[in-house]
Amino acid sequence: MRLLISGASGYVGSHLLKKLGENNFQLGILVRKDIMNVPAGSFIINTNETDWKTKVHSFNPDVVLHLASYLTSSDDENQIDKLIEANISFGTHLLDAVKNSNVKTFINTGTFAEYPIREGKKTPAYLYAATKTAFCSIVNYYQAVVGFRVFNIIPYTVYGGAHSAKKLIDHIYDSLGSSTPIDMSPGEQVLDFIHIDDVVNFYIILLSRIDQHKNNYTEIHLGSGKGITPKEIAILMEKISGKESNINWGGLPYRKNDTMFSVVPYNLSGSQVGWQPSLKIEEGIQMYLREKANEI
């Protein structure tokens, strides 16, 4: 399989890249800067170069895995251009680059913040989520023109492993044994936490079985299917670590349109491709705490 991947330097992409190299994919990797741990034999395409689309056409992928994204919950004016460029413009240029290739499958990445209402209707909670929803319409257009299959993957609250931007779980960790309380929102949202190792395994399974799925469009919501609140995560971390958290719950307000219930519905889960998460939240937190201890 000739696999073209964007966002390989991001959180999910960087963890996935090693596994892709181990599974004998012919990799084309879209980059904007040098990245570490590139599998041997990968075809690197720098999107800062003017002929990058020509190189994509030359690589001629069978499957495109589009992970590249700019993530922020802020709707500030200075975020608008970044969100549109990364989440709409770049993806559209990528679709244009592969439209005359032999691509058979396009795997897109959305966000659970597109679905803040339990009924499952797309109602984006933030501008970031709105750009993801808007891009789906563009994917659908190119699907009609080109004829490839689409998988739209909706990751939920991913945690664990190395990453550059702090996540909710990292703020809880920082409060363990802290003498200074950390302000957080009331912590009553019901969220679906999924460990990065399970996310990586999902993509490997999906790619290995991709020719078995004939639907033109498949949406998969990627999570454990079980909800837990940030307050409950804090209690669990206290129990496992033996340290008391120091959090001022409610010290920060919820954001407008904050997602209050976000749990994967079973009918849209990864079971559609034969995947199930292997790590329970307790096991994932134990791994997370071991990883943090090794950083010290």
Describe the 3D structure.
The chain has 296 residues and is α/β, with parallel strands linked by helices. It has a domain at 2-155: NAD(P)-binding Rossmann-like Domain (Rossmann fold), CATH 3.40.50. The protein contains eight helices and 13 strands. Strands 3-2-1-4-5-6-11 form a seven-stranded parallel beta sheet, sandwiched between helices. It has a two-stranded parallel ribbon with strand order 7-10. It is globular. The termini are far apart.
Question: What structural keywords apply?
Answer:
single chain, seven-stranded parallel sheet, 13 strands, 296 residues, two-stranded parallel sheet, alpha/beta, Rossmann fold, globular
